[in-house]
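agent> Task received from the user: take the single chain below, predict its 3D structure, and emit C-alpha cells. No templates, no multimer pairing.
agent> Plan: (1) validate residues, (2) run structure prediction, (3) serialize to C-alpha cells, (4) report one or two observations.
agent> Step 1 OK, no nonstandard residues flagged.
tool_call: predict_structure(input=
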Amino acid sequence: MTEPRADLTRTTLGVLFIGVLIVATLWVLRPFIAPTIWATMIVVSTWPLLKWVEARLWRRRSLAVLVMTLLILMLLVLPLMLAITTIVRHVDEIVAQAAILSGYVLSPPPPWVAKLPLIGERAAAWWTEAAAAGSSGLIARVMPYADDIAKWFVSQAGSLGLVFVQFLLMVVMAAIMYAGGESAARALRRFGRRLAGVHGENVVTLAGEAIRGVALGVGVTAVLQAGFGGIGLAIVGVPFAGLLTAVMLLLCIAQLGPSLVLFPAVAWVYWSGDTGWGTFLLVWTLIAVTMDNFVRPALIRLGADLPLLLIFGGVIGGVLAFGLIGIFVGPVVLAVAYTLLGAWIDAGEEPSPQAGDG
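)
tool_result: status=success, residues=358
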C-alpha cells in the first residue's frame, strides 16, 4: 500500500503563513514587549511579598494588588520627589557654589603629575593649559557646544515621555499579573510540559527561581550599598547626601557600583582640607564598594540553586547585550540553556553495571 505523497506547496504555504502571523503579532505587540518583560520580572520577584501582604489583608487579593501597585509607583515617585526636593531646598547653595567655581583659579600641576607613566606628560600639558586659560577660558571653550547640548536635551524629552508611558504600561501589566498570577503560572507550566515534557516544566520553574534569585541579589545588594554609602556621606557632611544616595541606588542597580559617587566625594572632602574625615570616608567607601562581592553571591544562592559563575556571567553579559533589562534576561537565558544541556547529557548516559553483575 503506497503512502500519500506530501503536498510540498501546501506545507510551504502553511509554514510561511505561520511565520508571517508570528511576525505580525510581534510587530503589533512591540510597544508592549518591554513593559511586559519588566512586569513579569517584578511580579515573579515580588510574588512572595504579595502573598505575605494578602495574608495580612484578610486574604483579599484585590487589596494586596492595590498595595503592591502603589509600592511600584512609589519606587518611581519617591526618587524623583527626593531629587526635586533636594535641588529646591539647596538652590541658593548651588548658585553660590557655581559663583565660587566661576572665580576659581586653577593652580599649576605639581611635579609628580608629569612623572605618571603613559599619561603623565599629556595630563600635565592639559592641566597647564587649563590653568593658563582660567575659568573664563574654559567657559569660552564650552559655549560653542552649549547649543548642541541644549538640542540634545530637547530631543531626549520625547524619549523621557516614552519611558514614562512604558512605565505606566508596566504598572498596569504588573497589576493584571498580580491578580491572575496562579492561572498564568499554570498556563506556562502546561506550555513547558507540552513543549518538552517534564524537562520543559522544570525549565519554567527554574526560570522563575533564577529571576527571583537575581532580583534578590541585585536589588537587596543595591539597597544595602546605596544605604551604607549614603550613611557615610551624611556622617561626613557631604552636601546633597540624599540626592547622591538616590543616584548611587540607580548606579548599583545598573551594576556600575557606588564608586562613581563615593570616590569623587572622598576627593572633595580631601580638597576641602578635612584630612581626617576624608580618610574616614575613604575607608567607608572601600567597604561599600567591596561589600557586594560577599552579599550578592549569598543572596543569589538563596533564590536560585545555580552556579554562581553562570548567574554572574548572565548579569554582566545581559546588561551588555540587552541593557538594564538584561540583568534579569541574561541569567534566565543561561539558566535555561544550562538546564537543558544538563538534561540532555543525563538522558544520554547509560547506567553503569553494578558490582557483582554478570
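agent> Step 4: summary for the user.
Residues 120-179 form the longest helix (60 residues).
agent> Done.
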